[in-house]
Every structure is written in structure tokens, then in C-alpha cells.
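FORM 7B: Structural annotation worksheet

SECTION A. Query
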Amino acid sequence: MSDLSILACYAHPDDEQGISGTLRLCLDSGIRAGLLCATRGEVGEIADPSLATPETLGEVREKELRQAAQIIGISDLYFLDYRDSGMDGTPENKDPRAFVNADEHEAVGRIVQVIRDFKPTVIVTFDATGGYGHPDHLAIHRWTAQAFTAAGDPSCYPEAGPAFAPRRLFWSSFPRSVRKMMVEYFKEHNIHSVFSNLSPEKYGLPDEMITNRVNVKPYLSLKRRALGAHRTQLNPNGPFTKIPPEKWDEWRSVESFAFGMGEPLPPDADPGDLFAGLR
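SECTION B. Predicted structure
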């Protein structure tokens, strides 16, 4: 086991599926991997009414995330205990328990406490577009960036434990060329999806901003099993069930990241190595 570690900071159970292959690759390389989840996805979808009710969904989704983490191999799992804020413009946005309504100082402090406890070398979270603009995705992006800096400052949040400075922060993201390809595929095959209405020029990151592409093709089977743990979110009639497995695997065989903060990548860095120059 090396002294390297990676912490994924996300908003809801199943958000981690965008980098599940990378997390497993790290574990197989002897790198510790942890997962922080801001909410329990209390206002997400319920694909099958027999799986949960609106009142039990948060509890059920926590169990689903724990199962997915176990499949990936992650034992260090943290919850910030906020409530899912729901999609932009929905009534749930106004719930005082919602993550987007959290006190900023408090929310950053909770992330700082996890960072100081887990001591990650590298942190990963959503890019500034939140993938598709979900309010909680935008909040975890913003507050993780603040916590990345604050965690190493002993004058910030002294009650959260001794200062610890992670060395590099990445944004996980879809390159816009890939998002455009997905939208075109949906339209060509007459597959209706909310993602079809999202402008490829607005969400994700421009291709030139992507600094790292991790080949996770050897982990496609694991990725499918980990995703399958999130049963409440897998609508059997949803758009992604209409995509042939080989096309789905093609899209999920590479996980993309953009360097965000911290120690810059070396000029000759392997684009598949988030830890280049940190060993």
C-alpha cells in the first residue's frame, strides 16, 4: 500500500459512477480511495414503487451507495447529512434542510473535516457546470474547492482537526465533444432524454480543458455492477436502456478530468495518471 490516496466528493448516491473505474484502478494500484456524499438523494426518482417511498428513499439510497462502494472496493464512505435539493426550479430547492441552503461556512467546514480525517493526496469533484447544472452539483463543486484550500490552513476550522493540505484537485467532466456525440446519437435513434435538451456548448468542459483521460475499459464489468446497485434510479424504460451495450461501454471506457487546483501536472505527465509528479 502506497501513501497516496484519492477522495471523491459528490452530491448524491450514484454521482460517483462517473469515476467508478478510476477509483477501482487506484485501489488496484495500492492507492487508498474514499467517497464523500453530501446528501442521500432524498428527492431522486423511484424507478420501482416496490423499492422505496418518498419517505424512505434517502435511507434506501444510502444502502444502495454502500453496496456500490463495496463493489468498487471503497470502505471509507462519508455523508455530510444534508438533504437533496432537487432539480433547479423545484419546490425542494426551498427546503431549509437542502444542501443548497446550507450555511456556506458550515458546509465547507464539514468537507474540511473529512479531508483532514481521510488525508487525500488528490481530490475529485464535479466541474463548474455540475455535469448538467443540478444545484447540488454546483454547490459541491464550489464548496469542495474552498475546502481544498482551507484544509491546509491551521487558522481555518481548528475544531475540524489538525491541518492537512491535499496536493491536487481535479474536476471530473465529460468533454463537450463526447456530450455532443451523445446528443446526436439520441436524436439519430429517436431516444428521448432530458440530456438531449442540454446544450453541449454549456455543460461539461471544452476538450482543450481536459488534462487527463483514464482508460477504464478493464473495469467495464465492475462499472456495470456498481451502477446496478442504484436500483431506485434505474428506470427500466429510461433512455439509457435503449442504448446498445457496446455503445454504452464505448462511452464509459474513458473517464475524463481537468486539473483544477494545487500542484500542476508535470509537462510530460501520463494523461492517465492523476498522481503524476506526486509520488
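SECTION C. Observations
The chain has one domain: 5-174+207-238+254-262. Residues 5-174+207-238+254-262 form a domain with the Rossmann fold fold (CATH 3.40.50.10320).

SECTION D. Sign-off
Analyst initials: ____
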